[in-house]
Q: What sequence folds into this?
């Protein structure tokens, strides 16, 4: 089996699909730009024509002389990646942050921890897909506890303290990012925590 990429530009966006075909047979795929085709509208002779044209024609498939099996299209890789590195972001659940505020605080933590990580670890983490796991902690005491553990383990960390311009009082600690680092360095510290 060979893998080829097909770009679905005719749908108005680009998205790659992995297409598997037998190795000896070329992939014969034809995309039709439906916006450029005007299909004739057939009108019976005893009725008035419909003023609205058929917006989407039904193109007939291209016929080929030999019968080829339909390719198998998948959007998932056949071998999922094996992650060696990750970053975990701990979020205080006692603050009841709005979804937008929560997303911003998690992003701040992720970027700031990335910036204090060694270049070699950053490159390795980025190369394998920059895996992030968001976990929950009960309150500021728990957040401070995990900050202390991560610093003691020599891991890159970023504690985010909010300015207090929107939802929170000034100087409220909201999130803590640990890593990117090897899984075996982070897991012993955070394995007991639950996903947000």
A:
């Amino acid at each position: 089996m060979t893998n080829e990429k097909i770009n679905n530009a005719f749908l108005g966006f680009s998205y790659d699909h992995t297409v598997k075909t037998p190795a000896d047979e070329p992939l014969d795929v034809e995309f039709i730009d439906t916006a450029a085709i005007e299909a004739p509208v057939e009108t019976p002779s005893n009725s008035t024509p419909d003023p609205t044209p058929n917006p989407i024609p039904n193109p007939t498939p291209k016929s080929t002389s030999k019968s080829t099996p339909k390719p198998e299209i998948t959007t998932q890789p056949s071998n999922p990646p094996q992650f060696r590195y990750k970053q975990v972001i701990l979020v205080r659940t006692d603050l009841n942050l709005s979804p937008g505020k929560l997303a911003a605080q998690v992003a701040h933590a992720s970027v700031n921890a990335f910036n204090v990580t060694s270049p070699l670890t950053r490159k390795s983490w980025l190369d394998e897909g920059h895996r992030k796991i968001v976990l929950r902690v009960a309150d500021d005491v728990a957040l401070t506890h995990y900050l202390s553990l991560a610093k003691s383990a020599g891991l890159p960390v970023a504690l985010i303290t909010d300015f207090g311009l929107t939802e929170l009082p000034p100087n409220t600690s909201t999130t803590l990012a640990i890593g990117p680092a090897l899984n075996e360095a982070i897991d012993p510290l955070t394995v007991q925590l639950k996903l947000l």
Observations:
- The chain has two domains: 1-79, 85-190.
